[in-house]
Amino acid sequence: MLARRTLLLTLLALTLMSGACRRAEPPAARETRLVVFAAASLREVFTNLGRQFEAAHPGVTLSFNFAGTQELRAQVEHGAVVDVFASADQRHMQELVRAERVTQPVVFARNEPVIVVSREAAGRVRSLAELPEAARIVLGAPEVPIGRYGLQIFERARATLGADFPARIEAKVVSRELNVRQVLTKVSLGEAEAGLVYRTDALAAGEGVTVVTLPPALNVVADYPIAVVMGAPQPELARSWVDFVRSPEGQRALRGAGFVPVSTDAAP
Would you tell me which of 103, 138, 219, 220 could form a disulfide with 192, CB atoms 3.0–4.6 Å apart? Predict the structure, then answer.
């Protein structure tokens, strides 16, 4: 009987000690999530910058949503929980400014459209003037920044390439995509012979496509603005991300990806 009582007391003591040890353990650190909506053309460079940002901010995880700028704008307008929005054009960002959905944006990079040509059509499409020679052309939809830029470029080309130049291109268009990466994919896979994308996208495709540079007099410059979203769950971290993208380190990464960096001294 005495041995049994001693055993029970020992087990009880061990149980109490175990509970005390568990109570003494420090609470697990909570993960903080920063949600960034960004134009599809920013996928590679923002993903790489995100790893650097996480390394400098232990406990912070970046969650990216890459898509067409117009899709992301619609999600923000409908109340998506997001901290930062980076756009491939000023138009959609300014609509969010007018709707008081974002704080004052700043331009952090610039890009330029180029023509990408599939391997089978590389010998036929070597300039903007030869673009109508492609049997199948894929462009961005008119509401997509790259689609709207294309319309502007083709309209400008009327003066030198003929009043019917836009119509000649339109006759060869087989699809209009909802983001620039879908345009690039169709040309890379040979589903289309030519398309209009950003220079950064063409660089990401490597040797899968041939790049045709557009005449500077006809081309457009794509401004990329970034802003903290009103009501962001992580406003301080959001501002830190914007500052990081605009920092010398962020600008070097953007330059390496083919973007034209923007001096922070010139930004508002």
Answer: 138
